[in-house]
Write a structure and sequence with these properties.
By secondary structure, this protein is α/β, with parallel strands linked by helices. The chain has one domain (5-263): NADP-dependent oxidoreductase domain (TIM Barrel), CATH 3.20.20. It is built from ten helices and eight strands. The chain has helices spanning 23-35, 51-59, 81-95, 113-126, 139-148, 172-179, 198-205, 211-220, 234-241, 250-260, and strands spanning 5-7, 40-42, 69-74, 99-104, 129-135, 156-160, 182-186, 225-228. An eight-stranded parallel β-sheet has the order 1-2-3-4-5-6-7-8. The longest helix is centred in the middle third of the chain and has 15 residues, at 81-95.
């Protein structure tokens, strides 16, 4: 996995609705990201009704499969044993390859978590997925899912986390660090709000980096945390890639943490 990933919400369409109007552009964006070393791509069956997964499949052609790490997610209404299997098979068909990490997108009220985990473990055995995890879960939900595991364990949790949204800082993140889980942080730039921060821009000036790159690097500096900013354009992907390969000085990281703490 690369230190930063590419989120694909809105790429290929919106909430279950596909959009084919920018396919060439979106594929080029994803290809650019992989070529720059952002080899971790996050998608879901819900994004564009599966079209996002199709675009990911198009984008990774020409790259060695071992070079990329693909995450996809099953929607909670499909969390029953049979529907998890159907969803995973459909996602793999759209992507054109196996899924590295498969997540339950949100907690489900249509099926018990143990039923979902049972399906995940079958998918691992079949080689459809390599690992499984959860998204938008708290510690209690993660532990419940882990208690259902018979052969394999939850390896990752994907939640909303940024300098402006720090709810998991005293709960899920330390749990993930202690238990060896990867914590995937979505919406890490708060839809561009952090990219406009004067404080982050001023600190970035010391490193020759932008405010967005500083906000992402602040996350990269936290053990087990991998941010996945949206791969909205070639320019954004290039900027996001520039958040890798360096580290904020400890005093700058602490200063940023302190200055944003009141906004959490």
């Amino acid at each position: 996995m690369s230190a930063i990933g590419m989120g694909t919400w809105g790429i290929g369409g919106g909430y279950w609705v596909p959009d084919y109007s920018k396919d060439v552009e979106w594929v080029e964006v994803l290809k650019t990201g992989v070529s720059l070393g952002i080899t971790f791509i996050d998608t879901a069956e819900m994004y564009g009704g599966g079209h996002s997964e199709e675009l990911v499949g198009m984008a990774i052609k020409g790259f060695s499969r071992d070079e990329v790490f693909i995450v996809s997610k099953v929607w909670p209404t499909n969390a029953s044993y049979d529907n998890v299997l159907k969803s995973a098979y459909a996602s793999v068909k759209r992507i054109g390859t196996y899924i590295d990490l498969y997540l339950l997108h949100w907690p489900s009220d249509v099926a018990p978590i143990c039923e979902t985990v049972k399906a995940f473990e079958k998918l691992v055995d079949e080689g459809i997925i390599r690992f499984y995890g959860l998204s938008n879960f708290g510690v209690r939900g993660i532990e419940e899912a882990r208690s259902c595991s018979k052969k394999y364990d939850v390896v990752a949790i994907e939640n909303h986390y940024s300098l402006l949204h720090r709810d998991d800082e005293d709960s899920v993140i330390p749990y993930a660090q202690r238990e060896g889980l990867i914590y995937i942080a979505y919406t890490p730039l708060e839809r561009g709000e952090l990219a406009r921060s004067r404080l982050l821009a001023d600190i970035g000036g010391r490193y020759g980096k932008t405010a967005a790159q500083v906000a992402l690097n602040w996350l990269v500096c936290i053990d087990n945390v991998v941010p996945i900013p949206k791969a909205g354009s070639v320019e954004h992907v290039k900027e996001n890639a520039g958040a890798m390969g360096w580290r904020l000085a400890k005093e700058d990281w602490l200063e940023i943490s302190r200055r944003f703490s009141k906004k959490s």
